[in-house]
Amino acid sequence: MARATRRSKKRRKVLKRKLNNKESEGVISPKVNKYWLQRYSLFSRYDQGIKLDEEGWFSVTPEEIAVRHAQRSVAGGVVVDCFAGMGGNSIQFAALGYHVVAIDIDPKKVEMASNNTKIYGVDSYIDFIVGDFLQLAPSLKGNVAFLSPPWGGPSYKMAENFTLDLLKPVDGHTLFQVAQAITPNIIMFLPRNVDVCQVEELSWLSSPPLNVEIEENYVRGFLKGVTAYFGKTAYWGVAQETSSAHIREV
Question: In what order do the strands lie in the sheet containing 126-130?
Fold first, then answer.
């Protein structure tokens, strides 16, 4: 028992030393130590030169979930990533051959995301735009709009029931309506404690109402978020799209 305790203490010391080394290199801060430990679930190619800022560590979509989002973009052709951040989702959309319009208001984030897309070899499929999505949306067209707006940082977990008005830079209802100007095929990645009833009600902002599907997203058994699929990205729409594609092939 005493040996096991000593080994456990030794492992903690080694881990602490590694984290301190990373901090001294300017790669991470104490605020994101926990996310650094999950770095390979965020980007499997992290060691090849992936770049993230502090906000990026806790806001990027885990790679496994980003892959799932891309697989559901059956209406794709052009995917508009409305809050691209570190490029995690844009990379996976592009990996399936979709053309991606990736938007972020922060030029430094766009620079990092551009670097990350090159590491995955998909940069030729992505056009980055530095700008405000809310202002750009009326001039954009695409087959799918992907919304993963800021959740307000790690403090989102403190809310027992995360309502759509807590999203940034504006409330979720407004974001959804703006995205509808681009396409009715919308994917929203939201906090795990989001008010699901409010999310489902977004489908009624269209006439007729959009198909909607809510999916819980897990990584290694831990709930990481909730994805809402609207229009053709919902399972009903996926089935219809698949059926139509089959008919065209025949």
Answer: 126-130, 99-104, 78-81, 144-147, 186-190, 222-230, 212-219
